[in-house]
Amino acid sequence: MSCSEEYIRVAKRFSHRLLHPKLVVLVVAKGRNGKVNVMTAAWCMPVSINPPLVVVSISRKRYTYKLIKESREFVICIPTLDMLNVVHYFGTVSGRDENKISKSGVKLAPAKTIDVPYIVGSLAILECKVYKIVEAGDHDLVIGEVLEAYALKGCFKDNCYDIECISPIYHIGGPRYTTIAKKVLKPGSL
């Protein structure tokens, strides 16, 4: 299937979707009261190598945002394709309204360096402390310094993912997702 060479107008409120698909992550936070919550995010990326910093764009209305502001730490989990239903659930239900951890059935394990757990079975884990929070429109950019990072054994080789081994989830828009092709492309290989 190919696209036309003619352009169509895209409404500004959907212009962010022109930058999709985006890797889906699960952001885990824990409040001072000990309650753990998870939210789905697709607006996440690295912003510095030294120090290692990542940013997640989170609405100030989100319960997870409140917990991150309280504890000043969070975990980013990279879910696998078999976690798609849980990913969608975590992105559509608020932790203010129900205990998403118990309802989802995911298992948590203690992180190595912070007091926020990670989701067992995730492809990769990044343990972060808040480096800075920057206001940006209706979302804040939560910049985290990566204190510890780990990936499932056998899925991260030569300092990058083994494409044959992984099936990460990418958000297209709304309730639509995709995953990657199982081949590595290099310049001149097409």
Which labels suit this protein?
three-stranded antiparallel β-sheet; seven-stranded antiparallel β-sheet; 3 helices; single chain
Write down the Rg.
17 Å
* CATH class placement: Mainly Beta
What value does the average pLDDT take? 94
Strand ordering within the main sheet: 3-2-6-9-10-5-4
- Identify the overall geometry: globular
CATH topology assignment: Pnp Oxidase, Chain A
Tell me which oligomeric state these chains represent.
Answer: single chain
Tally of distinct domains: 1
**What portion of the residues fall into strands of 2 or more residues?**
35-45%
Helix content: 10-25%
User: What order do the helices and strands follow?
Assistant: EEEEEHEHHEEEEEEEE
Low-confidence parts lasting 5 or more residues at pLDDT below 50?
none
What do these coordinates show?
- The protein has 190 residues and is mainly β.
- The protein has a single domain (15-179), classed as Pnp Oxidase, Chain A.
- Helices cover 12% and strands 38% of the residues.
- It contains 3 helices and 14 strands.
- The protein has helices spanning 63-71, 84-92, 100-104, and strands at residues 22-23, 25-30, 36-41, 44-48, 53-59, 73-78, 108-109, 118-119, 124-136, 139-151, 156-157, 160-161, 170-173, 176-178.
- The longest helix has 9 residues, at 63-71.
- The chain starts with 21 loop residues before the first strand and ends in a 12-residue tail after the last strand.
Which helices and strands occur, and which strands form pairs?
Blueprint: E1 22-23, E2 25-30, E3 36-41, E4 44-48, E5 53-59, H1 63-71, E6 73-78, H2 84-92, H3 100-104, E7 108-109, E8 118-119, E9 124-136, E10 139-151, E11 156-157, E12 160-161, E13 170-173, E14 176-178
Antiparallel strand pairs: 1-13, 2-3, 2-6, 4-5, 5-10, 6-9, 7-8, 9-10, 11-12, 13-14
